Amino acid sequence: METLESKRRTLIATNNDIKRRVEFAKLQGGSASNQVTHWLQEVESMERKVSDTQRDFEEQKNCWKGFFPNYYRRRKISKKSSILIGQVDELITNGKFENGVTEPLPLVTNALPTMPIVGKTAELTRQEIWNYILGTEKPIIGVHGMGGVGKTTIMRNIHNDLSQQSEPKHFDCFIWITVSNDVDVNKLQRKIAKELEIDMEEDDDENDRARKIFNALKRRKKFLLILDDMWKQFDLVEVGIPIPSEENGCKVVLTTRDKGIFGPMQAHAIEVRVLSEDESWEFFKNIVGGVIHSKDIEHLAKDVAKECRNLPLAIKTVGGSMCGVDNAAVWMDASKDLKEANGGFTRWCCC
């Protein structure tokens, strides 16, 4: 019976450790795995069985102050005790849970609204970026190209495809930040803090914010951080972003019109090029619709499409405004306006 008591104490200690691990995981949004829940229930049942056996033993020992022992009952209790010792040992062994005590947290991601990638040219660029993101050679990747060429569209498609994968998970965390041209270190830090749900105090200085961001990203282990629409370089350490490396498996992707910021940030440059003439025309036709096949409209539509300079965003904007228009005079006016503007409208709609 002493052996059974010793095993019981070991089991209780293991049980308490598992419960503490589960409670800690719950504070972080996790939940006990089905295997752990079943084990805890078995331990609870085993504690009752052991207590009942110990009580029976004490009652037998105290019967007639031990002068008239019931040997049959003692042998029965002894046999039961031996069986329980084996079962308790098995529970202790099964309670190691080397792979953790909680269910894997669901990958929390927000798919970004975007349009499909258009054309073989853009698809090849997407594949190149994808390969570098999943590879180990280039931890910081810079995606550059003129406004409206499709940098954001490509990166949003990559973000959504990666973040919604069930297996294998290449990253533990996906962060998308739209930087824009008026952002300094303070604003960038606050954008990242908002995305990571970090509480920033009003009196936090730049170093305080950097420390909080750094620790929050470290806890997320392997992260993919996409800084979209960069207009100037930033020191990642100054912002609080851990330097991505082959060792930590993290990646940072920048998108910008200005390739010049990549050198100081040690980013590998990938250019997003405009569509080919054929790709542009096919895309434009798809947006405008069947009216474009009219013999009075088609040649005018080609002139309008040409003024979009093979830029997907310009084609989408202009094509959308001409969708279903079957009046040749309207097409002539649109073509004339775009030509007179000498690309000014194209630059405006791509800003």
From TrEMBL:
Keywords: ATP-binding, Coiled coil, Nucleotide-binding, Plant defense
PANTHER family: DISEASE RESISTANCE PROTEIN RPS2-LIKE (PTHR33463:SF209), NB-ARC DOMAIN-CONTAINING PROTEIN-RELATED (PTHR33463)
One GO term (biological process): defense response
Name of this protein: Disease resistance-like protein isoform X1
Entry-linked Pfam families: NB-ARC
Gene3D superfamilies (alphabetical): Helical domain of apoptotic protease-activating factors, P-loop containing nucleotide triphosphate hydrolases
Family annotation (SMART domains): AAA
Residue intervals of the AAA+ ATPase domain: 137-276
Coiled coil: 193-220
GO molecular function, one term: ATP binding
Cited InterPro entries: AAA+_ATPase, Apaf_helical, NB-ARC, P-loop_NTPase, Plant_NBS-LRR
Organism: Cinnamomum micranthum f. kanehirae
